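ok new one. same drill as before - structure tokens go in, u give me an amino acid for every spot. 285 of them this time. try not to just spam alanines like last time pls lmao
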């Protein structure tokens, strides 16, 4: 999730009130072809149901389903190889740069999660942040194998899946941030740990019910969505993906696009870029 820009969902409705409350599904078309966009949550609890007859009907029609990255066995292999290359098994010294107050806050947040300072110190700050968030999610019952992406990738044949980027490439984008910025983000997340259960639950339930206003406010209020992170992990990626989707339409390829739903909202979103490019965009669920 936070890295909730990658994990938490947000879709804004520009259509009239819908009869059925469900995660938003968009149709983008030109004169003779169409694609569909679905904003996902990458981890979910057992009590949230997101599949609908409308979604499954689209799934049956499409040529391919495009995801952010392969998170299956091959994608995991790429992550392992990249991790070894980056040397994540080597201890970092960033823990020594924390102030006494920061160290105290870090320990207070991670001890109830069953984590230790030396454990996190063996990894770069951005990865330590992800580990803290993952521990919170697991404690709350959120699982990747229940998320939209892993569910769909597991059931689709290889030839029906496509990817905008690699999981290793996503990891590299996070790792490329300066260490001081990584530490700032980590401490922002640490400060927010007590609020995460409520925030995550509110976002997930708003997403599953199609409550766009609530989702918009949640993401706007997210303290970890700083300007640099938003630019690198959201806006820049949207700008790379939109031309790929335009090419799909030009080639009359009827594909379903499944990406973290934060990529489908506001100025610079995939939806915004396709609308400005002259395509017809409508929410159909």
């Amino acid at each position: 999730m936070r890295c909730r820009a990658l994990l938490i969902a947000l879709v804004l409705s520009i259509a009239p009130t819908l009869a059925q409350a469900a995660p938003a599904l968009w149709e983008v078309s030109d004169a003779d072809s169409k694609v569909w966009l679905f904003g996902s949550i990458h981890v979910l609890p057992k009590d949230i149901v997101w599949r609908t007859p409308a979604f499954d009907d689209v799934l049956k029609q499409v040529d391919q389903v495009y995801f952010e990255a392969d998170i299956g066995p091959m994608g995991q292999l790429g992550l392992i190889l990249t991790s070894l290359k980056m040397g994540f098994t080597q201890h970092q010294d960033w823990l020594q740069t924390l102030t006494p107050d920061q160290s105290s806050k870090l320990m207070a947040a991670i001890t109830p999660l069953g984590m230790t300072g030396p454990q996190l110190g063996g990894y770069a700050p951005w990865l330590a942040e992800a580990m803290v968030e993952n521990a919170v999610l697991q404690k709350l019952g959120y699982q990747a194998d229940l998320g939209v992406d892993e569910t769909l990738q597991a059931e689709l044949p290889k030839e029906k899946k496509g990817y905008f980027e690699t999981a290793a490439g996503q990891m590299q984008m996070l790792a490329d941030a300066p260490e001081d910025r990584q530490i700032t983000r980590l401490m922002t997340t640490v400060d927010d740990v007590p609020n995460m259960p409520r925030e995550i639950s509110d976002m997930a339930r708003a997403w599953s019910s199609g409550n766009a206003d609530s989702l918009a406010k949640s993401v706007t209020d997210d303290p970890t969505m700083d300007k640099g992170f938003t630019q690198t992990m959201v806006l820049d990626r949207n700008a790379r993906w939109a031309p790929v989707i335009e090419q799909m339409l030009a080639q009359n390829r009827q594909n379903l696009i499944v990406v973290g739903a934060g990529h489908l909202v506001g100025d610079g979103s995939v939806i915004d870029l396709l609308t400005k490019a002259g395509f017809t965009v409508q929410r159909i669920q």
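The mean pLDDT is 86. and btw Residues 214 and 220 are 10 Å apart (CA to CA).
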